[in-house]
């Protein structure tokens, strides 16, 4: 890679990071190209040069964030694929996978270094560019379908449609704590941010797993 290519990649990275911050705070419509240029330290022609227009840039930002967050799921989905290929599913293995997925969702919702990703899920629902929702697809849709599948393996005889409904309730509930921290507002005066995060994760995990066991 030439020095020019490295500089271009570095500039694109800076623009994408700026896009994550601005779009998560203001959404697509309220974020202007001037805001993008000023916050990234670039001139007004830089973003159009790399992405042609704001819509393409917005989609690139969503794709960039989705790819970043999806890396946290890769080992888990590899494990699922291996179990499918081997046909060696048991109730115990399904339970282990359920616990792993719940832990991943708790990390994504509470410990994720980039909480802006959860905010971008909200904006994805209101900026309908060909129904382009890559972050929603990763954090919500794929994980919900996977959890529903695991529930049918954990409880043979459970209809997939019912499992999908249960999965939506469980997964949506977990992510909501990350999207709407005001849900735990009464705890703010009693616990530090770190303590609150640990307490939330432990309580949510305990409640979710116990609910599944009692299906």
Describe what this molecule looks like in 3D.
This protein has 215 residues and is mostly helical. It folds into two domains: 3-65, Arc Repressor Mutant, subunit A (Orthogonal Bundle); 68-213, Tetracycline Repressor, domain 2 (Orthogonal Bundle). The protein is 76% helix and 0% strand. The chain has ten helices and no strands. The chain has helices at 3-30, 33-40, 46-51, 54-70, 74-86, 91-111, 116-124, 134-154, 160-179, 193-213.
What string gives the helices and strands in order? HHHHHHHHHH
Please tell me the CATH architecture of the largest domain by its name.
Answer: Orthogonal Bundle
Gross geometry: elongated
| Largest beta-sheet characterization | none
Number of domains: 2
Q: Which structural class should the secondary elements be placed in?
A: mainly alpha
Low-confidence stretches: 1-7
Quantity of strands, as a count: 0
Distance between the termini: 55 Å
CATH topology of the largest domain: the name is Tetracycline Repressor, domain 2
- Supply Rg: 20 Å
β content, as a range? under 5%
Q: How many helices does DSSP assign?
A: 10
Range of helix content: over 70%
Provide the residue-averaged pLDDT: 86
CATH class call of the largest domain: Mainly Alpha
CATH superfamily of the largest domain: Tetracycline Repressor, domain 2
